[in-house]
Design goal:
It contains 4 helices and 6 strands; from the N terminus they run βαβββαααββ. It is of the alpha+beta class and 144 residues long. The strands form 3 sheets. The chain has a two-stranded parallel ribbon with strand order 1-2. A hairpin with a 2-residue loop joins β3 and β4 (60-61). It is globular and about 50 Å long. It starts with a strand and ends with a strand. The model has no long low-confidence stretch (mean pLDDT 86).
Length: 144
């Protein structure tokens, strides 16, 4: 099986928001199916939903995206990450070069901010994973 956990990246628009419940339901159906045919199957768990390509005004998502983010928080509660990723070309440039966004951080602007936001999302994700601690640069399983 592919993964123990999954994250749903989403745009903060109406159409993208509609697909979140469908995606979550599909994974739940797959979990049920695999649990029936495979003894000891561990269901894939949703870590959370991360907003991407967020456009900001005054360090906050623009009005329509703030509204959509609020609706997602009402519908999914704590599954919606507090951190999000802004729109910008840092990730696009890094991807074209086959590098992580951190490699573009020195260029400043949105690339630096995207790198910082990606790191904040990573830390939030690590905090959500049960049974793991973040120690320096390594994930370490907690003692059983």
């Amino acid at each position: 099986y592919a993964s123990d956990y999954y994250v749903i990246p989403t745009l903060l628009d109406k159409l993208s928001s509609y697909g979140l419940t469908s995606l979550k339901n599909k994974v739940n159906k797959l979990n049920s199916f695999f649990a029936k045919i495979s003894e000891g199957y561990r269901p894939t768990e949703l870590i959370g939903i991360v907003a991407n390509n967020v456009r900001e005004y005054g360090q906050e998502p623009i009005g329509t995206q703030t509204y959509t983010l609020g609706r997602l928080q009402d519908a999914f509660g704590d599954l919606v990450f507090q951190n999000y990723l802004i729109y910008g070309d840092g990730i696009t440039k890094a991807s074209e070069l086959g590098n992580p966004v951190y490699s573009q951080a020195a260029s400043g602007g949105t690339a630096r901010k995207q790198a910082d936001m990606a790191e904040a999302i990573l830390y939030e994700m690590l905090e959500r994973l049960r049974g793991w601690e973040y120690e320096g640069e390594f994930l370490v399983a907690e003692p059983s």
